[in-house]
From TrEMBL:
Domain of life per record: Bacteria
Organism name: Arthrobacter cupressi
InterPro entries hit by this protein: DUF2516
Protein name according to UniProt: DUF2516 family protein
Length: 116
């Protein structure tokens, strides 16, 4: 096997693995965005649920296109898609989780004075 062919094959494999990881990240952001109610987004002072569904949905579509149709790995659109999903997961998701957990009980028997 020629050296250039071997390096090209390894490089294509690495790009494919990176594309799969990026697609997993984008899909995780989309599925997580679907879990929350629109009121949670407004209460957390993040944009609307429709906005984040569009951002994470488009990023997941770009990731799927890159991985399954050979769209060139992580090109400019792939990097933008990973960035959008990462912003959701790093900034919006923690705020939504905080809002979503505020109404839950603090212990196994509720949040009363005798909750040990």
């Amino acid at each position: 096997m020629d050296g250039k062919l071997l390096i090209g094959t390894i490089q294509a494999g690495i790009y494919f693995i990176l594309g799969l990881i990026a697609f997993g990240l984008e899909l995780w952001a989309l599925v997580d965005c679907l879990r929350y109610k629109p009121a949670h987004f407004e209460a957390a002072f993040k944009r609307t649920k429709t906005f984040w569904l569009a951002m994470t949905g488009i990023s997941a579509a770009v990731g799927a296109f890159s991985v399954f149709l050979g769209g060139g790995g992580l090109g400019l659109f792939g990097i933008a898609a990973v960035t959008a999903a990462s912003v959701y997961l790093a900034d919006v998701r923690p705020a939504l989780r905080e809002i979503g957990n505020s109404g839950r009980s603090q212990g196994p028997y509720g949040s009363g004075p005798y909750n040990w």
